[in-house]
Every structure is written in C-alpha cells, then in structure tokens.
Amino acid sequence: MSHFVYALLAIAMVLILVSLLVPLAERLRLPHTVLLAIAGLGLGFLGSWFMMHGSATGVMHDLFEGLDRLEVRTDLFLPFFLPPLLFNAGLTIDVRRLFDEIFAVLLLAIVAVLVCIGVVAAVLHQVTGIELIVCLLVGTIVSTTDPAAVIGIFRDVGAPKRLSILAEGESLLNDAVAISAFAFVMQILIDQASGQQGAPDLMEPLLHFGREFLGGILFGFAIARVAMFILPRLNDSEAAIASVTVSLAYLSYAFADHYLGVSGVVSVVMAALTVAAYGPTHLHPSQWTALRQVWTQLEFWSNCLIFILASMLAANVLPQITWLYVWGLGAVTLGAMVARVLVVFGMLPLLEAARLVQPVDRRYKVILVWGGLRGAVTIVLAMVVFSDTRLSDDIRQVAAVIATLFVMFTLFVNATTLGLVMRALGLDKLTRVELALRDRVLALSRVNVARQLQQIIRVHNERIDGLDIDPLSAGEPEIEAPPADLALALDERIKVGLLTLSTQEKELYFALFDQQTLSRRMVALLTARADRLIDAVRDRGIEGYDEIAHSFALPTRGFRIALWLHRVLGIEWALTGHLADRFEILMVTQDVLAEVLAFNSTSVTDLLGPEAAAQLAVLIKDRQQNVDGALKALSLQYPGYAESVKQRELERASIRFESLEYARRLQESIISREVYADLRSELAKRRNAIIRRPPLDLGLELAKMIGRVSLFAALDQAVLREVGRRLRARVATPGDKIIKKGGPSDAMYFIAAGEVTVYPATGPVVLKEGEFFGEMGLLDQRPRNADVVANSYCHLLVLYRKDFDELLARRPEVRKEIEAVAARRIADTPSNWEMRDRVAR
After folding, report:
1. In the chain, how long is the greatest CA-to-CA distance?
2. CB 155 within 8 A of CB 422
3. DSSP 654-703
4. First to last CA, the chain
C-alpha cells in the first residue's frame, strides 16, 4: 500500500512542477516540451544522487521512490498514454479542411513516413553497422512528428490556415502509419529472438499492413458511430459525455488490438476523427466545448508525464553512453533531415505542379523541414521497446536510447532555434503592407481618442459650467498622411480589405453559432469556406478571391454524386439533403454578406480609403447577386420548402431575442431565478422542436412542377395523372450540358424551373420556365443538332422515348399539343432547316 502512496505522491508533485513550467515556457518563448525534458533530466540526475546519498526515509525519499516505480512500469506506456494523445489530436483537427488538403496530408503522413524509415535505417546501418532490422525499428520510432511548435510559428506569422492543417494532419496520420510499421518490425524481431522466423514472404508486409490499417479504420468508425448514437441521449450531463468518449478511446484501442487483431492505433485515430466530424452536429455547443476542454486536460497530463518519466530514464542512461550512441544519433539526425527535405522540397512540388495542392511558400517549407520535432509518441514507442524483455538487452537499449536522444536533440536544437530560423527567413518582420496598416491604425486611433475626449469635455462643460462647447477642443483633428514609402497602392489596399472582410465574415458565422441560430455542422462548413477565401487572397489577391467565391456557387462533388444517384438509381435522400444544405447556406450567406457590406462602409473606409472601399463593395455586391440569384432559383423550384425554411429561421431569431429579454429581466431582478428557469425550459422545448430542418420531398413537388409547364395547362386531370406517372424529375446544375449535338434523340425535356440556352448554328436561343425542348428529335427520329446547356439550377421533367411513344399513342391530345408547338416554331422561321437549327431535337 505504501508503494501506491509513493506513486500518488510522485504524480502529484510532477503535475505541480509541469504546471509551473507553462508560464516559464511562454516567457522564454520555448515549447513547453523543452522545459519538460530539462525538468525530467534534472529529476533523473537528482533522484540517482539522492537514492545513493540521501537518507532512507522522509518525503524526498518517498517522492523519488514513487518516481522510480513509475519508471519501472514502462510496459504500460503504450496502452495507457497513447490513446489520449491520439484521440485528442484527432478531436481537435478540422476534418473538413483536412479533406481539402488530403493529397498533401497523405504525402506527408504516409510517403514521408516510409521515406523516413528507409533513409534513417540505411544511414544508421552504414554509419554504425547495426543490424538492418534493428535500424528499421529505430526508423519507425523516429518517423512520428510533433506539430505543436510549427503550428505556433505559423500562427504567429499569419501563415495560411491550410499550413496548420497540413502539420496537424501529418502528425495525426503519420502516427498511425508509423506505429503500424513499428508493430510489424517489432513482431519480426520478437520472432527472430524466439527462433520462430521462417522464410521471408514478400506479400506478408502488404497483407499485414492492409489488414491492420483497413480493419482499424472500419472498427474505429463503427464503434465511434455507436458512441455518437449514445452521446445525444445523455441529456445535459457533460461529465457523462466525457466519460463515454474516454471509454471510446481506450475501448477502441484495447478491443481492436487484443481481440480483433487489427491496429488499435488506427482505430483510435478513426474514432477521434469520426467524433470530430459528427460530434459538433450531435451535441450542444456548450457540451462540445466542455468535451474539448476535458480532452485537452487529459492530453496535457499524458504528455507531461511521458516527457518527465522518459527524460528521467534518459538521465539514468546518459552517463553510460558510448561513441556508438553518438554516431547513431548523428546518423539518425542526418537521415531524418534528408528524408524530410526529399519529401517537402522534392515530392510536394510534384503535387503543386499537378494542382492537387495549392503552392506553399519556400520559407514555410523550410519551417516544415526544420520544425520536424519529435515528441510524446516517439518517447512512448522508445519506452515500449525498452521494456519488452522478449528482445535482447542490446536491441532494447540501442533502439530506445538512440530514439530518446534524437527526441532530446530535436527539442534542444531544432525547437530552440526555430525562432532564429524564422528571423533568418524574415518571417518575424512586418511587411510594408503591415507597417502601413499599423501606422494607419495608429493614426486613426489617435484621432478617435481625441474626438472622444473632446466629447467628454463638451458634456462636462455643458453640465458644470453651462457652456455649449469648449473652445480649446473645438475643431476636428486631422489624420496624418502615411510616409511616401509606406503609401499603399490601390491593389494592395484592396487585398488588405479582402482579408479583413473575409475574416469578419468568419467571425459573423461564429457569432450566429454562439446565438444558436446556426448549427455546429453549418458553422464548420461556412467557416471553412471563409478560411479558403482568406488563403486564396493571401496567395493570389483579388484573382484568388474571385475564383474561390465563384467556386462556392458551383455544385460540390458530394452534390454531383447525389445527383447521379438520383438520376441513375432513383435515390432521393442524398439529393434532398444536399438541396436542403444549399438552402440553408444561401440564406445564411445572404444575411452575413449584408453585414459584411455594412462593415465595409463603416470600418474599412477609414482604414483603406473610399476608393478601395468602393471596389470592395463591388466585389461583395457581386457575391450578393450570385447568392440572391441562386436562392431565387431554388425558391422558384421549391416554394413550399423555401417558405418552411424562412419560417424556421424566423422562429430561431424569435427564440434568441426572447432569451436575451429573459436574461435582461433576470439581471434587473424583475423576475426570480425560478421564473427564469421555467421560461428557459419553454424556450428549450421550442428550440428542440425546430432543431431539424423541414423535409424536402422531391416526389411531392412533381405535381407543382407539372403545373408550371404551359403545354399541360389545357389537359384534363386524367391526362395529367397519366403524364405524371411517366415523367422523371431531373436537376441540372449551372453549366451542365443537358443535350449534346450529334447525340441520340432519347428524350424530351420540360423546364419546371430555371432556364437553358440552345446553341444551334443560327445563334443561341434561351428557353425559360414552362417551355420544353428535344421534341423534334423524337418526332422525326433524327440525331440532336444543337447543344443545350443549363444557365442556372434547373429542375427538368424528362419524358423518355419509350414513354413518349406510348403516351402519344394512348393520348392523341398530347401529341396534338406537341405537334402544334413544333409547327408554330417551324412557322416562326424562314425555313424548316433554320428552325431545326434553332431548337434542339
């Protein structure tokens, strides 16, 4: 029992120590892990001395006795510390932005790991002569990265958000790849040590990797989806929600690794990503924030304990280091740096050339190379090797010590010099634009302060002395003009304005989320779009802004897939979900852009000048027109749904205003806390009643769509029912080629909403709602002779040839109407041939 008390004492003292190091690290501008390593080394040396020369009793003896016993149980490092480290890393990443940069992330996470393992093993084997399989083990251990320092640098210098996503995604996924490779190499060494190693099978590594990786992905996703079913049903208990996620992290690791024989690490990572993707939409914002705080705390404890204990262990080994370890450290350092340069400067440009990722500035690439620090995961793997008695003592010590020394090297050399590298690259200096803005803001601030002081003096004189104005403060101060060398060109000011407005747009989305008028899923999607705008402006200025803003109006890949499923397989739920998303996105963007435009006129004009503000207003108004046009097109297609969505948004706004009013009444002591709680409970019921979007049923809209087609206006109900059974709804996105010239005449199309352009030889012809096209090809059975392209989102009713022939055979009145329209079209042109060129068959 006393040993358990010693361990508790040791943990308590370590947690106090690591907490005191946090403000010190901020003051010294060093990563916290550097000070943790120093503290661990100090405790290790002090503990060795004290245990040899100190007294056998007392608090200090018990403290170091407890630390020594914690070090002995290094076999618990992997299952105890790894799940919280990996789960928190996955929980904090922006999954949507991760998929935007997926090609670069996969390059850095998978290819970089394999290159690092191979290069490190080759260099280490050549320099030290250590057996190649042991060198491969060292390579797997040191191939993981810790992105904290690099992300901090990117944040300090205002680098594009996607670079932080690259660093976070690389660290998360390469941990999974590296640990899977580590487990594989460990098993080979264990089999060799036990004499069970048979003839090598070249397919075994691939099969093993595939089984471990794919199995871990499937199990992690499945168990996380079960957890996401449970979490919303725990009511408001934040403690219960946190407990389930903690269980999820350890259960996904233990069950996958021990019972299923798949990668527990990959399972944990996938479970974390799944919770990160679905959690914000399934949990209340306050619950999600509380959950993130719990996991940040768990990760902090795990990271600190790992570094302290590992550094203490290194302190015990350092006095016994030979030249073999020194040369080994040099070889690993050289191999890891070469591998990093090959990937970042050799392979990443290939993705840039293929336009799979946006170009990355060379200075940031240098930071990615030099900032390839190693952290807690590397330490955990080194401790696992050190504690595995199935391996020989030489292998255990060589692998663990060299890996631990490499971690210390990256912390004491790379981490401490990152600031110097940043300054050498000029990333710490304000650009000419930033200097000009700083001076402009300073001048504006002085003027505004002077105006406020004048107003205070005026009010004081009116109240005290009866004066209307203070003569000394009369008149408006002038804003000093910037120096000539800092005067910004119009394009530069517009670029700064676009960055400011895009950032303001992002903040407005967060404000709507805080007011509970925007779901977590929607705010994640919309803020990710704002981040893409910011990155585009930083990279390519006005051109980048226009390109990305224009892409927002285009259908997404998911929408196109849903559209294909609806057209080919008749599956509606995916398409209705995407259409409903588009309704909400357009309505929210419409409101936010109006506020951005007002912000431009009130806050940006003084900063950048009226000429730049006017140009910015034009850009914002162009976006507004695109959004308004798209929303109008959708509303015309689905008027009932559009009205339902508007009513839902009004109800949300009403609930928000009522909540603020109740809070004000409580603060003024007009109502008691019991009354306030009852009112809030009623609001919660109303909020829960509208939390789901109204359903959008394409089938229910079919009759309304048929009614918009002028051809069917004169038909009786029996004929309309017959037509309705044969028509198929189809959604066309802007730019879609509905009919291709020379193609088969297999259907005719009725425009229920939207417009299309026909491109015959005589010139384009625009057809709008209620009109139809493609009938001539069915009547005379000739190939198409013109392209037909959708101008906007169009809802079409399609009548295929088979149904066309059967319908016209059964309903001669329909044939009569179609032939009459065709005859009128032919009569409107000088010749039949010209008409055939005007209207697509």
Report:
1. 114
2. no
3. HHHHHHHHHHHHHHTTSS-HHHHHHHHHHHHHHHHHTSSPPP--TGGGHH
4. 90
Q: Amino acid letter at 355?
A: R
Distance CA 296, CA 291 (A): 9
- Pick 308 or 451 by higher pLDDT: 308
Euclidean distance between CA atoms 467 and 463, whole angstroms: 8
| pLDDT at residue 123 in the model | 93
Question: Phi/psi at 730 (nearest 5 deg)?
Answer: -145, 135
Residue given tokens 């209705």 in the structure block? 576
Q: How far apart are CA 86 and CA 662, in angstroms?
A: 42
DSSP 259: I
What is the rounded CA–CA span in Å between residue 627 and residue 588? 10
CA distance 460 to 532: 50
Tokens for 60, please give them: 């200090």
Residues 762, 722: contact at Cβ < 8 Å?
A: no
| Cβ–Cβ < 8 Å for 333, 139 | no
Pick the closest to residue 383 from 435, 309, 330 (CA basis). Answer: 309
Q: How far apart are alpha carbons 741 and 731 in whole angstroms?
A: 20
Q: State the pLDDT confidence band at 816, using cuts at 50, 70 and 90.
A: confident
Two tokens at 616?
């910015």
- Counting every residue, how long is the chain? 841
Query: Once rounded to an integer, what is the mean pLDDT over residues 39-49?
Result: 80
Residue type, 329: L
Task: Convert the pLDDT of each residue in 65-112 to its tens digit.
Answer: 777 666 545 556 667 778 888 888 888 887 777 777 777 777 777 888
Of 231, 226, 221, 222, the closest CA to residue 281 belongs to 231
Question: Per residue in 736-788, pLDDT tens?
Answer: 888 888 888 888 888 877 788 988 877 788 888 778 788 777 777 778 878 89
Question: At which residue do the structure tokens 């696992």 appear?
Answer: 384
With a CB cutoff of 8 Å and minimum separation 6, the contacts of 450 are 477
pTM for the whole structure: 0.66
701 or 830, higher pLDDT? 701
Q: Looking at residue 472, what is its pLDDT? A: 46
Tokens representing 246 are 């903690």
Q: What SS3 class is residue 831? A: coil
